[in-house]
Design goal:
The complex is a heterodimer of chains A (about 160) and B (about 350). Chain A is an alpha+beta fold and about 160 residues long. Chain A is built from 5 helices and 5 strands; from the N terminus they run ββαβββαααα. Chain A has a 5-stranded mixed beta sheet with strand order 2-1-5-3-4, with helices on one face. In chain A, helix 2 crosses helix 5. The longest helix of chain A has 23 residues. With about 350 residues, chain B is an alpha+beta fold. Among the domains of chain B are: about 50 residues, Uridine Diphospho-n-acetylenolpyruvylglucosamine Reductase, domain 2, CATH 3.30.43.10; about 110 residues, CO dehydrogenase flavoprotein, C-terminal domain (Enolase-like, domain 1). Chain B is about 25% helix and about 20% strand. In chain B, the strands form 3 sheets. Chain B has a 5-stranded antiparallel beta sheet with strand order 4-5-8-6-7. A 4-stranded antiparallel beta sheet of chain B has the order 9-10-11-12. In chain B, helix 11 packs across helix 12. Classes of the chains: A alpha+beta (about 160), B alpha+beta (about 350).
Amino acid sequence: MNHSISLTVNGARRDFVLDDPRVTLLDLLRERLHLTGTKKGCDRGQCGACTILVDGKRINSCLALAISHDGADILTIEGVARGDQLHPVQAAFIAHDGFQCGFCTPGQIMSAIGMMREGQTGNDPERVRECMSGNLCRCGAYAGIVDAVLDAQGQMDESNQRRSA
Amino acid sequence: MKPFDYVRPASVAEAVAAAAQPGAVFLAAGTNLLDLMKGGVSRPDRLVDVTHLDGLDQIETLADGSVRIGALVSNADLAHDATFAKSYPAVAEALLSGASAQLRNAATVGGNLLQRTRCAYFYDTASRCNKREAGSGCDARDGENRSHAVLGWSESCIATHPSDFCVPLVALDAVVEIEGSNGRREIALDQLHRLPDDAPERESALEPGDLIVAVRLPPAARAFASHARYLKVRERTSYAFAIVSAAAALRIENGKIAEARLALGGVAAKPWRARAAEDVLRNVAPTADAFQEAAWRALEGAKPSGDNAFKIELARRIVVRALLLAAAGTPARIPALPASPFASISGAIHA
């Protein structure tokens, strides 16, 4: 039996016909839309490489059935920059060497963006490490990742203050 | 993953009817179920998707002072609800000590209660497991079992229930609201999970088609808000299941404990309420000696199920420490590392 769903992916509405309900959001993004920035690491919810935002919240897309997310608003790593202008978190990862091989990086960045929206960490590095624990980095770039997240968060706080001033 | 039929019911009644047939399971977030299905551990014929049902995602305060948590409220939304966290701080701390931020955003209250054990032999389909396949045997019994049960286990199963959330809930007398083929009923959370005995494949009191629609905390649960903690020892400081955990809650009046609540996690096939320990803490001063006595009571009857005798002594120490932390008072903010014994909190005395 075929199931029709529609999603908003990086701002654009996309309609799909699923001939098999087993398709995860991760496989849909990668195989149907060729948005391969979202990575398949463990495919079991342990590594965080597949992190995307669904309705503004970060989740593991490998453990989410596409068919169950009809109508969802999805943001992937491909949707965070504005043209050539990197998202502040992307720029901070480059500035702070927040990666080595880069495989976990899209998931790290999406997780960091989700974390900042959650607003639970402040500028406490211990909180950042705790709240980013769902993203593994096998190269061990954690020190740079935490620096990048704190830097980006500081910049975004400043720009928010300027905007509200 | 085995193919399955997908059903999206329009009402709770339709959901119950659709899930009552053999081989059907409910799908909420699926963070545990999909993992099990990918590994061939769960092989349902039909998924009944309840995520779109109305009215199951609210946190309500009822007229009598109870709080009613809809089964589809996410773990993160519940933990970050300021009113809820202030009234039930140990529950919020337990939630935030579990899984990762991504999983907490997706995982639901009902799903958390019904998550399956993380026993490696249950997950490994090449191993014998009485829970996965009734009567096949238990490879955990002579296997890697240092994290397994020390209370309530049987020769047929030594698995533990992995939930953090359930531990303070069972201490606070949580009630589970269930919609089933014969209408609505409710049971104490303490009665939801079954000990293995000789039928570990039967994990809960739920019948086919039964849908958990809400969890309720009674009015009395609020009275512990100023002295309630959750403490969890794990292999890593974050994103790891409990080796041993404890929820401790005290109602202190005029320098004495009027009422104590205590439950343990990671030690049994269910969240383990330690009523004998609670009894010895009635009308006594909140001292380390009293807590030591309570810890001995809490672990009465505990025995190793393998290479895990250390968990019994560890559990005693965690009980004492959790009670000391509760007596010292609920901190104004949940610590940076929720429920961690390594959190920097002054005044904690190691047992």
